[in-house]
Amino acid sequence: FVGATDFTGVVGSFTDGVQGFQMSDADGTMRTTFDTVTSPLGTPGPRVEFEWSLCLDYFVQETGWESDDRIRIWVDADGTELDIVNTMGSDIDDLGIEDAWTTGFVNLTGYVNVTLMIELESNSASEAMFLDNILFKTGVPTPGSLALLGLGGLAATRRRR
To answer: Which CATH number fits domain 2-160: 3.40.50, 3.10.450, 1.10.10, 2.60.120?
Structure first.
């Protein structure tokens, strides 16, 4: 199964609302690619640099994962791959990521176009992962940018007189 679900038998409840996103029983490798998100700040250049990021909650079902099963959650940020979770080369059962909601985070400052991707490689109906509360956030200006804004405001005030 892949897609939006309100089934909470595994997760107990979703972290935001009554539905979440589920991937299970891939019988091989299954990848979901979400729409590309563009920075609300536009193209990098001579401008104030604001921080932005992606955070999401993920839940890995506790079960007997095989050593060749894999979970990967990452973003393609302007052609650069940034991992949030990548179990490649590890046994999922040994990572301490099962049976609880975990918040993943990636800083996207300096990137413009970002695509979230999720991949599950498994072969059993009991091997599942869930996502919820996927948020792209913008933050406060970086300290250097804030200082430049202040200096620009000071210069503008002096010019008016």
So the answer is: 2.60.120
